[in-house]
């Protein structure tokens, strides 16, 4: 029941129509019986400043941030958490008397499904596809796991070098190796953890994969393949990886865990993670 007292939360991005965040957040809000609603806001990069001013004017309490704003919003915040500063990207923002503040709960979300594996990560190699805001959270997560050999693969050498350079003053102690897409066939066989952070294969382009089958043929049989995309379920990338014997993880649990961490931050109380997960599974026809 929306009332005159109902407080606003939401998610900004472009595009945003595909987002399932409203499904899980509103399910949790209903379960908790709090007077909030969570809405999707389509915001173009050119409208970010106007949107933030509008949010402040109408009293938005907090919001999530997705593509393409995770890095751009940093300079618009009065304060960011240490983890967000280290990652160089923000996905969760809240309003204070001093202005907007932000953090990054993607690292928590990314790590959640990997905690179930009884693995010594220190001698492992991670290959990360993509060098955007989501990739930064994955790099930070890999460092937290203790992975010492991290490759980040992208298509634009200039952007890759800028990505590598941006970590030089990070408080995270990491050894980062950037490679162009053409080098994948030479390094893919080293990967123990292969992570897709690109939007390639996301609905409605369900037949696409960031890697062709020829490259996937080179992966280890016991590799963990992780796609941050959660729709379709599974992606073509994960389907190809599973056919080669890989353990596969999709982005659903990451979405749930990062969302739960954000909602807990906004409301300052425990949130029903199971309800959030079940709402997504139902929405995706997995129940």
TrEMBL record:
Catalytic activity: shikimate + NADP(+) = 3-dehydroshikimate + NADPH + H(+)
Matches recorded under InterPro entries: Aminoacid_DH-like_N_sf, NAD(P)-bd_dom_sf, SDH_C, Shikimate_DH, Shikimate_DH-bd_N, Shikimate_DH_fam, Shikm_DH/Glu-tRNA_Rdtase
UniProt-listed CDD domains: NAD_bind_Shikimate_DH
Molecular-function GO terms, alphabetical: shikimate 3-dehydrogenase (NADP+) activity
Signal peptide: none
Ranges for domain Quinate/shikimate 5-dehydrogenase/glutamyl-tRNA reductase: 118-199
Residue ranges annotated for the Shikimate dehydrogenase substrate binding N-terminal domain, each copy included: 11-93
Pfam families named in the record: SDH_C, Shikimate_DH, Shikimate_dh_N
Annotated positions binding NADP(+): 130-134, 228, 251
Positions of the SDH C-terminal domain: 251-281
Pathway: Metabolic intermediate biosynthesis; chorismate biosynthesis; chorismate from D-erythrose 4-phosphate and phosphoenolpyruvate: step 4/7
Key words, A-Z: Amino-acid biosynthesis, Aromatic amino acid biosynthesis, NADP, Oxidoreductase
Quaternary data: Homodimer.
Stated family: Belongs to the shikimate dehydrogenase family.
PANTHER family for the chain: BIFUNCTIONAL 3-DEHYDROQUINATE DEHYDRATASE_SHIKIMATE DEHYDROGENASE, CHLOROPLASTIC, SHIKIMATE DEHYDROGENASE
Function: Involved in the biosynthesis of the chorismate, which leads to the biosynthesis of aromatic amino acids. Catalyzes the reversible NADPH linked reduction of 3-dehydroshikimate (DHSA) to yield shikimate (SA).
NCBIfam families (alphabetical): aroE, PRK00258.2-2
Protein name: Shikimate dehydrogenase (NADP(+))
Phylogenetic placement of the source organism: Bacteria, Bacillati, Cyanobacteriota, Cyanophyceae, Oscillatoriophycideae
Gene of this entry: aroE
């Amino acid at each position: 029941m929306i009332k005159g007292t109902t407080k606003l939360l939401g998610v900004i991005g472009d595009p945003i129509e595909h987002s399932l965040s409203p499904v899980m957040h509103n399910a949790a809000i209903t379960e908790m019986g709090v007077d909030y609603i969570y809405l999707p806001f389509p915001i173009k990069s050119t409208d970010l400043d106007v949107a933030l001013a509008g949010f402040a004017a109408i009293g938005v309490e907090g919001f999530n941030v997705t593509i393409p704003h995770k890095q751009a919003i940093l300079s618009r915040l009065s304060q960011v958490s240490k983890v967000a500063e280290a990652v160089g990207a923000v996905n969760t923002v809240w309003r204070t008397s001093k202005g907007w503040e932000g953090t990054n709960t993607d690292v928590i979300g990314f790590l959640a499904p990997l905690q179930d594996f009884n693995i010594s990560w220190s001698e492992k190699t991670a290959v990360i596809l993509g060098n955007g805001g989501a990739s930064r959270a994955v790099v930070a997560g890999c460092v937290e796991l203790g992975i010492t050999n991290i490759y980040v693969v992208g298509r634009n050498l200039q952007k890759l070098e800028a990505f590598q350079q941006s970590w030089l003053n990070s408080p995270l102690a990491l050894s980062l190796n950037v490679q162009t897409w053409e080098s994948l066939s030479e390094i893919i066989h080293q990967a123990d953890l292969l992570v897709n952070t690109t939007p390639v294969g996301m609905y409605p382009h369900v037949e696409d994969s960031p890697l062709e089958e020829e490259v996937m043929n080179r992966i280890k049989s016991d590799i963990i393949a992780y796609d941050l995309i959660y729709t379709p379920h599974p992606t073509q990338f994960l389907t190809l990886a599973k056919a080669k014997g890989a353990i596969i993880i999709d982005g659903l649990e990451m979405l749930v865990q990062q969302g739960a961490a954000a909602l807990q931050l906004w409301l300052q109380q425990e949130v029903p993670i199971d309800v959030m997960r079940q709402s997504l599974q139902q929405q995706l026809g997995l129940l």
